[in-house]
Design brief:
The chain has 426 residues and is α/β, with parallel strands linked by helices. α2 links the parallel β1 and β2. Pfam families: SBP_bac_8.
């Protein structure tokens, strides 16, 4: 955040601040720079789509590259490019960077354009739309990749225990009861698994419990952590009771073992996303997928949407074509050839019935349930600069409590104090 804000002070002397076209000429020759943040097959797919767009629009040239050695390195690369005026027209960005990028004062605001009916902005999930609008005002880009957590259950484990499969109407109490029945100490079989590494894996598994109970992560102004509300305490108490009293939860210190144990029929249920389905299909694991259990009829899930962020070079022609290309790229016709072809969830609800997506579902059953579960992704994870420290604070608290160390309220109160202090320092 410091680097991005400092870069803003250099705007007056950066090359881009000299500007370009002040009147739109849609036929003028334009060169766009696009940092995809991708590699290997994903990069090849996107390069092919850029070439196709160039063929349809001969006046547009798109310089495509990954932008950095890895996606994680893109934020630092963007920070440096702001200072030198060499930033791209379009870049892939993790959703967690959205507020920082908006604060750079280099992003385009496309709110007016995406309100046009032909964009069908409402087809993107609520979490994706809100991530693209980090301040609640300016829209800085389009969703690029979406996911969500769903409940995956191992039918072999369920059948062996004589337990009925989960349904889309399950409550958390239904879930807890089933996890207890599925657990068998004699065979080291557990009903459920949860990360206690203290990482973001630990944290984001907790957010649906908080949201379904009516809680929020942050105050409305984003300055104070509020996950230690009554809803937060109730959620952590529920998980603690499963782990400590029922002993039905495999506590994973690594974030990796629980998937392996699930695939080998040692865990009955996990909450995970589409990335897990390929591994399960390869392993030959028998499984099913439903939305997360709910509370009060709410089955809110958590999503980690990433973005195609658009940047302002004070050139109306470049801004026009950067928008038109990104709009084209995220349309259903192109997305089935990018996200769907690559094995990601489709960006839009309208793609769920497409032949391309149905073919992927044949390969990875349950992918359609996860795609439909996007309608339950109504809450965005915060994109504030202090989120990493906030996640570490609550992740540590959750891990300790699930391992029988401390009580939920005291742990969450301490984590909220640490998180709020971290937010104040950003």
């Amino acid at each position: 955040m410091v680097a991005l804000t400092a870069a803003g002070a250099l705007a007056a002397c950066s090359p881009s601040s000299k500007g370009g076209a002040t009147t739109l000429d849609a036929d003028a020759d334009v060169t766009l720079t696009w940092w995809t943040g991708q590699a290997d097959q994903a990069e090849t797919i996107l390069e092919g789509l850029a070439a196709e767009f160039e063929q349809e629009h001969p006046n547009v040239t798109i310089k495509v590259s990954s932008g950095a050695p890895s996606t994680e390195d893109l934020l630092q690369k963007l920070s440096a490019s702001f200072a030198g005026g060499t930033y791209p027209d379009i870049s892939y960005a993790f959703g967690s960077w959205a507020s920082e990028l908006a604060a750079s004062e280099r992003t385009l605001d496309i709110t007016e354009q995406v309100s046009e009916p032909d964009v069908a902005w409402d087809e993107f999930s609520g979490a994706a739309r809100q991530t693209a609008q980090p301040t609640g005002e300016a829209t800085i880009g389009f969703p690029a990749v979406v996911d969500n957590l769903s409940l995956i259950y191992n039918t072999t484990v369920f059948d062996a225990a004589g337990v009925e499969y989960p349904t889309e109407d399950w409550t958390w109490e239904d879930f807890r009861a089933a996890a207890k029945k599925l657990t068998d100490a004699s065979t080291n079989t557990y009903g459920y698994a949860y990360s206690v590494s203290g990482s973001e894996e630990t944290t984001w598994q907790f957010w649906p419990h908080l949201w379904q109970g009516g809680g929020q992560i942050l105050s409305e102004d984003g300055a104070t952590a509020e996950f230690n509300s009554a809803a937060g305490v109730e959620a952590l108490t529920f998980l603690r009771d499963m782990a400590v009293e029922d002993k039905s939860v495999y506590l994973d210190q690594t974030d990796t073992k629980f998937t392996e144990l699930f695939a080998s029929d040692r865990i009955g249920m996990v909450t995970s996303g589409p990335w897990t389905l390929y591994d399960l299909s390869v392993a030959g694991t028998q499984y099913g997928v439903v939305p997360l259990p709910g509370t009060g009829g709410k089955h809110t899930t958590v999503s980690g949407p990433d973005l195609w962020v658009l940047f302002d070079h004070h050139d109306l022609n470049r801004a026009h074509w950067a928008y038109e290309f990104t709009k084209w790229l995220t349309s259903p016709e192109q997305d089935v050839r990018w996200n769907v072809a690559y094995g990601n969830l489709p960006l839009r609800a309208s793609e769920i019935e497409s032949p391309e997506f149905r073919a992927q579902v044949e390969e990875m059953p349950g992918l359609d349930v996860m795609a439909a579960n996007g309608e339950n992704a109504t809450e965005p994870r915060p994109t504030v600069a202090g989120y990493v420290n906030l996640s570490e604070a609550i992740g540590t608290a959750i891990s300790q409590v699930l391992q029988g160390q401390g009580d939920p309220k005291s742990a969450l109160d301490g984590a909220a104090a640490t998180a709020t202090a971290a937010l104040a320092n950003k």
